[in-house]
Amino acid sequence: MTRKLHLAAAQLGAVNLSDSREDMVARLRELLRQAHARGVRFVVFPELALTTFFPRYWFDNQAETDARFYERSMPSPATMPLFDDARRYGIGFYLGYAELVEEQGQLRRFNTAILVSPQGEIVGKYRKVHLPGHAEHKPQAAFQHLEKKYFEVGDLGFRTWRMQDTIMGMLICNDRRWPEAFRALTLQGAELITLGFNTPTENLHYPEPPALRVHHHLIMAQAMAFMNATWLVETAKCGFEDGFRMFGHSLIVAPSGEIVAKTVSEDDELISFDADLDLAQDLKRTMFNYAAHRRPEHYRILIDRVGAQVTPHNA
Ligand code: CDT
Question: To test the ligand 1 pocket, which listed residue (128, 172, 173) has its Cβ within 8 A of the most ligand atoms?
Fold first, then answer.
């Protein structure tokens, strides 16, 4: 009997500074309602799904920023209705948000995602490892990308969880550009990798055609799914957030590297696919049989070296 899981990416359009937590939960609940009507059993929401992409702004007052954009508890009174709906529908989900925790008297901030079971329980948590952008104010730039100011590097590593008869792993946005993250998850058996993203249409660092940025997004998703023989769902928050554009192109990719569903708008939009979780078996038995073909004795440099160094071996 084939193992099937009906998957969805629940894309969000723009979230402006004036939008409240309650506004956002209402939009997420509407997408969940649509998912239920289609028979979906697992939904991936975006990165930082409860707020605007606030790292684009420099804020001086961290206490105000904490109160406005971060979650101190999950679920909270504001987010509980989403958990209640998921439980009523029997749908599992991935949700990205800004997390604020107090540990040993220290306030810590992470860009976080959770896996919530169809029973409404938090099964897994991931804190974003690859934080792009900068920590210092760039007043000349058209916008900021201050993830290094607002978040610490995640301290939970790359992990997988069994949920809904599927081995699932979580990543967040910029992680999708790092092959090491995918391999760490599929070495733990991941069959489904879930990821939310917020990607500006404009490159902050140098001029780049927006179409090329989307091209990179698509080829990375297809290559990572195929080279790791895994299902992959990547969900955008997109559109013009207070005038700052981010691209959509949320997608579901099969282990064959084929895009099986993709959004067409930059608004709230649900796409879904009834995934055969055993589709990767042939690839895992042959081409990407890690135990048979990986050569970790030659991969030492991947751990020992962070930045590239020019070390040619010619005499
Ligand atoms: N959210 C996030 O990680 N966005 C980055 C933008 C990179 S440009 C500083 C991304 O990789 O899509």
Answer: 173
